[in-house]
Amino acid sequence: MPAPPTTAVGRLYYGRHRLSFRAGTYLALVRMMGIAHLVTRLYGHARLVSETEARLARTRETVRDLVCEGFDSAAGRAAVERLRAVHRPVVADPADYRYVLGTFFLEPLRWNDAHARVRLDAGERRLLLDFWLRVGAEMGLGDLPASLPAWRASQRDYEARHLGPSREGRTLAALCLRDVVKLTVPPLMRAPFRHLMVATMEPAVREVLGVAAPGWHARLAARALVRLSG
Is the pTM of this model over 0.85? Predict the structure, then answer.
């Protein structure tokens, strides 16, 4: 059993908003598969297909180390170096990196606003934004929006230009939905959690990724998990 997080942002992720951040972070990974050039440029389509679960696990481990241990811990410093090493050889536009960074916190916020029984307050939102701004700074990203409304406007503009269907993105979204629940969700809860993800995915993203609209069982599972966690 891992030790409880000692950082303020760690308590945010693993405290009363745990479902918002688990579902929202997993859906963030899926959402990014709707940007066709990111699938091949940043993620490496062939590698993800062959080792989806391992790549997802590495991403989760890196985020968890930063969230739970902090930037100045040994684990946090190692996580930052992993981020830099993974992205160093990749030729990508800074807007692509900003989009990926923003999706990791905007999608949990979207989920919390739309589905959670307990909403994040203004202080918690500021804490979350400051954490991810620090992640961006550690990665050497510039021109980062300073407020959540500015981030949302930037993400809307980026998706208006780039969000769209692709065979590669749809393949990886299906693999991600299949495998991401294996990272932390107990075996008996994986099917209900997949239903939760499908039922709470933004409809426009679901359409782009070719994910079938949720049936009654998915909607029922989503409501039950939200009630149980709240």
Answer: yes
